[in-house]
Prior knowledge:
The structure holds two protein chains of two kinds.
Chain A: E1 3-5, E2 11-14, E3 19-25, E4 29-35, E5 40-46, H1 65-78, E6 86-92, H2 108-122, E7 126-132, E8 138-143, E9 149-153, E10 157-160
Parallel strand pairs in A: 1-3, 6-7
Antiparallel strand pairs in A: 2-5, 3-8, 4-5, 4-6, 8-9, 9-10
Chain B: H1 9-34, E1 38-40, E2 44-49, E3 63-73, E4 77-84, H2 85-96, H3 107-132, E5 136-138, E6 142-147, H4 148-154, H5 157-160, E7 165-175, E8 181-188, H6 192-199
Antiparallel strand pairs in B: 1-7, 2-7, 3-4, 3-5, 3-6, 4-8, 7-8
Amino acid sequence: MEIIKIGMADLGVAKPPSKLRTTGLGSCVGVVLYDQTHKIAGMAHVMLPESSLAKSGELTIGKYADTAIPHLINLMEKAGAQTRNIVAKIAGGAQMFAFLGNSDTMRIGPRNVEACKQALKDAHIKIVAEDTGGNCGRTIEMDATNGVLQIRTVNQGVKEV
Amino acid sequence: MAYFTKFGDFQFDVLREIGNIGAGHAATALSKLMQKEIDMKVPQVNIIPFDKVADCVGGAEAVVLAVFFRVEGDCPGNMFFILDLDSARYLLEQITGISKDVYEWEELEISALHEIGNILTGSYLSSLADFTQLNLQPSVPALAVDMAGAILSYGLIALGQAGDFALTIDTAFFEGNEKVKGNFFLIPDPESLPILFRSLGVPFDGDY
């Protein structure tokens, strides 16, 4: 069994028996997609809501919700998945330091969550589970065999969705 | 990455010196608070991919205590004061006489650590402000105990809009017998680097 690590602003696709894993999600959002019929899993570690925020010329596709999600769907289709079978689970988007909530930059967690939901809606993908917001970091792991998403936090232990 | 590609050795030396002066003052303040000798390592100036930032403090999943400040003023950026949990416990005990595990902390203990973070970061930034003649205003402190990756990624948001790399000025310090180990991270916003260099009369690119 192989665990494929997805870094910040990165994305990847896995087939059984592999797992996809990303660590230390704070305000970032982990988006996992799964095609139950073809057993194909995808994961993206989204850092910012919109690619229009990019200041430099080069664009890292995996960094923004509006570019990462369509690209991930594309990669999964190439691996044999069908969009109509794909469902999504999302985790992350915390506000690590609550008092800074007024500034728009610091409210990035909730903005990331909203942007991911919008991008999934645009792609007609249903969200079947969600663990977002709050003020704690999360590490997530998706098993490509069954699509179960394991979410680990420091204070609340491990849960599966 | 465009911002950093032009840096030569001289620019790195200047940034290291900024870490040295800032953390030197902070270490002195900590030494006074604890009435113990505090040593410092040579500051590391790193241009690293986001993923690797947390490696300096034990990896993305390492649980740490962080006091975070948003720095506004002439040279905006983010500042973290980071301790591992044993160090945080020991530091609190040395300074306040309270002996409690981090997870048992209540308002008083958290407030004390806020204040310690405030004093140390205040020393770091005020020495930097004196040295550069720039106006630097830290926010009130915010404290979190969580995964290092989740915490530090917060300081990279502004950078995330500019590129995939972060410039960090990281200074590790430790008490004589290594019972307290911690790091100061200064992560200037990308726009702040030219301002910082200009204030010191250093050219922004090329070797000097």
